[in-house]
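Model the whole thing, not chain by chain.
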Amino acid sequence: MKLQLALDTCNTEEALQIVGEVENSIDIVEIGTPMIIEYGMEPVRKVSEQYPNKLVIADTKIMDAGEFEADIAFNAGASIVSVMGITHDETIKGAVKAAKKANGKVLADMMCVTNLEKRAIELVELGVDYICVHTAHDVQATQSPFASLAKVQRSVGSERCAIAGGINEESINNVIEFKPEIVIVGNGITGQKNKAVAAKKISDILHD
Amino acid sequence: MKLQLALDTCNTEEALQIVGEVENSIDIVEIGTPMIIEYGMEPVRKVSEQYPNKLVIADTKIMDAGEFEADIAFNAGASIVSVMGITHDETIKGAVKAAKKANGKVLADMMCVTNLEKRAIELVELGVDYICVHTAHDVQATQSPFASLAKVQRSVGSERCAIAGGINEESINNVIEFKPEIVIVGNGITGQKNKAVAAKKISDILHD
């Protein structure tokens, strides 16, 4: 299991600093959608330059122009780009094509997908690497992702699974039995007083 | 009917230049998703500063964190932000809340929405200003938007309608009978030898 740190509410300088603090405990740095909306590819470029041993995912949430938009992120240094699992197959194929050119990977965010098992299988057949069960920030108060994670794990296997949305050092205990390849933590690290300690605790649980 | 120029494949300097060329014929400048992925809010900021009489829409295609992400775009000078119509109501409400604070507007992109009429009505009830029938770039070869436009126009009225995807000086003749409030043209202007002439032709058809 890999630990992915999601950075959503900071600027590029703060991102570089936070990654420095938790570097030893994380595997992947996510430049979140709000950061991309504000700063574009600048944080992707700088984090991937300064931390060449970390994978960087650009959470582009691509809905259209799959190859063109994924190209932008891969050219900026991303190792992984995200697409919305709900979008057109042609868009998914375009992002996969861009990933192949760049020797990168594609993560499909399953937000708003209703038939999870069926779509997960289709997406893997289209060449998607990771299927991300994602409880949207805006609905975390009312939705839990664990039943969805179980479904996706059964349909495409643990090694294709990623999980995001409200994961922290408590809720992670509901996640590890499914052994998802990628566990995405944002506020569970960035919102903690001592980020390094929080990241290490979560990393230790994942690698226990 | 308003003419919206969609800018997707240029950089900020080129955007400023193109807007200058077609200024007299267009009402709204769209900073497209690929530009936002590459440059963040820089083009939104610069175009809205340099052309204060034009409305600027940031095509953020928001899927989550509605208020937070819409705030970013409105704070950068956008008059309108886009959300995905398919996403959670909570996210739509967040974007609408941000719009109210900023005295801005919200456009919902209906890409991948299956029950167009029903969702259009729901979105308007949630406070969305415009319902955009959008044929994705990646499927323009196989899908036509005019039947969808007719449905949305019947359900929420012309003044709520926007249309995007492959509109040019020929296909626009299939659009005008529905009198959508916003007609979005990208390559139909930016891909033409003389952009000013192309924009004027389309504007003349809209205002005939």
